[in-house]
Design a protein that fits this description.
With 295 residues, the protein is α/β, with parallel strands linked by helices. It contains eleven helices and nine strands.
Length: 295
């Protein structure tokens, strides 16, 4: 399929020598042919550049080399070079089934009032074996702003196609963020547009040991985002306070289990201050953990 608008695929790579070939092949192997693939090699020190070079014969591929600046900055670099009316983001270790782009293009063509569409997601392990469907609670389509904000997570950006005009309006990814840049952007988009959903699992998201879950920089992302969100949407302060309180509790629990009691005490103290006001559950548990920090 070659008719229809140009689709820009922004792929990023950092020391992804083992994975990047699969990601590029899944993008270049789409049944929808009118696309460009912009791959940003974000200062890889392994053999990623050589792997990417194998695909140079495909004129739809454009490669950018830059010093390591982080995934958000790498994605923004790719977006700055994108020419397509529609944009997708693909990470180095994730995959699309061949009909992924075609299905999304067809959906957006038929739904002019919708700005983004995502597909069902199949989780896979390091070897590519299925781990089952990734299921999200709450509504799956329509106005998802409240849903994203209340649960503190959006949908996988690697399964989402977005109208470029909306991306430009939103301002791209926040490069101050370590790992929640996708949540931040998708939430800002959800404040502006409705999302569509295609239930077929056309996106394969890889889960590897050591890559899932929260890290310390991601907890700090949450605190930064809470401040940012309060300025953007002051009318949602109670929900944003709950978002921050949950992150304070989880980070405090992590610090306490690591024996870093003074730091943990600071997080539980913040939780008790914020969580008590916004009605976050688990107040008693947090109080007990706060007291344990003194033992």
């Amino acid at each position: 399929m070659s008719d229809g608008p140009l689709v820009s695929v922004v792929a990023t790579c950092y020391n992804g020598e083992r994975w990047i070939s699969g990601a590029l092949e899944s993008a270049l192997g789409q049944t929808y042919r009118n696309l460009e693939v912009i791959v940003v090699n974000d200062g890889s020190s392994d053999g990623s550049a050589g792997v990417i070079a194998r695909y140079a014969a495909d004129t739809r591929l454009r490669t950018v080399e830059q010093e390591n600046k982080g995934v958000a900055a790498a994605r923004n670099k790719g977006l700055s070079l994108a020419s397509g009316e529609l944009v997708c983001v693909l990470d180095q270790d994730d995959l699309w089934l061949p009909g992924h782009v075609a299905a999304q293009v067809e959906f957006l063509a038929a739904n002019a009032g919708i700005g983004a569409v995502y597909t069902g997601v199949e989780r896979i392990d390091a070897e590519g074996s299925s781990l089952g469907e990734r299921v999200f609670t709450g509504p799956r389509e329509g106005n998802l702003f409240k849903t994203f904000l209340e649960r503190g997570v959006a949908v996988p950006i690697i399964g989402t196609m977005i109208r470029r005009s909306l991306l430009e309006k939103a301002g791209g990814f926040d490069d101050k963020l370590f790992g929640k840049d996708d949540f931040d952007l998708l939430l800002r988009l959800a404040a502006e547009t409705s999302f569509g959903f295609l239930p077929e699992r056309l996106t394969l998201q890889r889960f590897r040991p050591g890559t899932a879950g929260q890290s310390e920089p991601m907890y700090r992302d949450s605190f930064y985002l809470a401040d940012k969100f309060r300025k953007l949407w002051p009318e949602e302060r109670r929900t944003i306070d709950k978002f921050e309180a949950g992150s304070r509790y989880l980070y405090g629990s992590f610090l306490l289990s690591s024996g870093r009691k003074a730091e943990a005490r600071e997080q539980f103290s913040a939780f008790l201050r914020i969580g008590g006001v916004c009605g976050f559950p688990g107040y008693l548990k947090a109080l007990i953990k706060y007291l344990l920090c003194y033992i």
